[in-house]
Write a structure and sequence with these properties.
The chain has one helix and 13 strands. By secondary structure, it is α+β, with helices and mostly antiparallel strands. It has three domains: 41 residues; 88 residues, Sandwich (Immunoglobulin-like), CATH 2.60.40; 77 residues, no CATH class.
């Protein structure tokens, strides 16, 4: 009889120890979760704004050289057409043929403009170059990081029209000539030039990062 009572007490005691251990483990898990929530709550949230954004539907995105010509020296272009704003320079090879074209201002045109060499600085041209412009969508924008959080460019995404007619684009892969790093720092303003060969027009641009979204109508 005594042995049975002793065994029973041992079983009860073991059960109580198991229940106690499970209770302690549960409290530890809840404590860890609470500490994580408190820690996350203390992290600052990102803050940014779209200062301005403009869509040019007829920007000169590229200039193809279909005939190099000869006898030229490095120079600039004349342009005519329904629109304005294109500017560029070119360099020549050893025979004076146009070798490279650099666009310094894309302009905005309703149809491809006519681009020719500015002959005021040329002499001795023996054959004429032929240049063919390609026009399309170019979005200009200025975005400012108004918060205290440094945002990696790869974690910032651009949308047009809410992404319904265009795939989200990572800020790091968009054409941003003034960005010299991989991060968007507090107080920094990014100037964006984004070539987007989608529909003929867009109405709205959005910027998303860290759960925050800013949107603005395109001018």
């Amino acid at each position: 009889m005594g042995a049975s009572v002793g065994v029973g007490a041992l079983v009860v005691g073991t059960s109580l120890l198991l229940v106690f251990a499970l209770a302690v483990q549960t409290l530890d898990n809840r404590l860890d979760t609470s500490l994580e929530i408190i820690s996350d709550a203390g992290d600052p949230l990102p803050s940014f704004q779209i200062d301005d954004a403009t869509l040019w539907e007829g920007a000169v995105l590229d200039v193809s050289i279909t005939a190099n010509g000869s006898g030229y020296v490095d120079g600039t272009f004349n342009v005519s057409g329904a629109g304005s704003g294109f500017e560029g320079t070119f360099t020549v090879d050893g025979s004076g043929g146009i070798e490279t074209v650099t666009i310094t201002s894309h302009g905005n045109y309703s149809s491809p403009p006519t681009i020719t060499v500015n002959m005021s600085t040329q002499s001795g041209v023996t054959s004429t170059a032929t240049l063919v412009p390609d026009i399309g969508n170019l979005i200009y924008g200025n975005f400012t990081n108004t918060g205290t959080v440094t945002l990696p460019h790869r974690e910032v995404w651009l949308f047009l029209d809410g992404g319904t007619s265009q795939t989200p684009t990572n800020l790091g892969s968009a054409y941003t000539p003034t960005i010299n790093s991989t991060n968007w720092y507090p107080g920094e303003t990014i100037s964006l030039e984004w070539f987007e060969d989608g529909p003929s027009t867009y109405n709205r641009i959005s910027l998303t990062a860290g759960g925050l979204t800013a949107a603005q109508t395109l001018e």
